Amino acid sequence: MPEHFTAPRGRHAPPLEVRLSSQRERLIAAAARVFARRGYAAASSESIARDAGMSKATFYEHFDNREDCIVALFDAAAATVMEAMVVAATAAGSDPEQRMRAGVHAVLATMAEQRDAARTFLVEIVGAGERAIARRDAIVAAFAEVLDRENAEAARRGLAARTPSRDDAYAVVGAIAELSSRQLRRGEPADPRELEPVVDRLIVALMAQPPPAR
After folding, report:
1. How do residues 56-84 score in pLDDT, each as one tens digit?
2. How far apart are CA 159 and CA 59, in angstroms?
3. pLDDT for 72
């Protein structure tokens, strides 16, 4: 859809729910650009609406305030990242380690393709208020749960030992998040996908404990 797409009017106009959905999607995309360019603290509802080619009043038809908007953007980005992770892991087959690697590689690839949304997802959300932090904590927990389930499956099949606690999975997710955040903030390394070897070593460390003796 063009950045400043204008829906047809009159008898050719789409249904109201379609128009509202289109407006919301455009505002969320604009918010990603504005937050990435200015940072959350310097962004405003007016600047987001202007970038989307809409009025400030239209912004407030969809969001209560700027925090409401960044939470919506965060949720959309999280859904995209999680879907990419699940699809890649499923395609990787049944080996737990390969599934983990494929899933995290897909996350890094999604970040490289959607850098503005990724910056909100990993950087700007931190300073966006208590509700935003709570949402971030929830999605970190969800990603850690995915890794923990993979480890549990590997342990069930006798391919690895069960990690001592779920905090091991949290540690891996936290390390990946910090590496990715640094890449987005400082451009080190130049492309998120260059982090794949480091991430692979983290996953290997998570899965490297020997299987239990039989």
Report:
1. 999 999 999 999 999 999 999 999 999 99
2. 52
3. 94
Asked whether the beta carbons of 33 and 87 are under 8 A apart, the reply is no
Query: pTM for the complete prediction?
Result: 0.80
Q: Which CATH architecture group holds 67-207?
A: Orthogonal Bundle (1.10)
In whole angstroms, how far apart are CA 19 and each of 6, 7, 16, 64? 10, 7, 5, 19
pLDDT at 1 over 70: no
Which residues of the chain are in CATH 1.10.10.60 domains?
15-62
Residue 6 has pLDDT above 50, yes or no: no
Number of Cβ within 10 Å of residue 188's Cβ equals 11
| CA-CA-CA-CA torsion sign (75, 77, 81, 87) | positive
**CATH class as words, domain 15-62:** mainly alpha
The CATH 1.10.357.10 domain(s) of the chain lie at: 67-207
Q: Is the pLDDT of residue 37 over 50?
A: yes
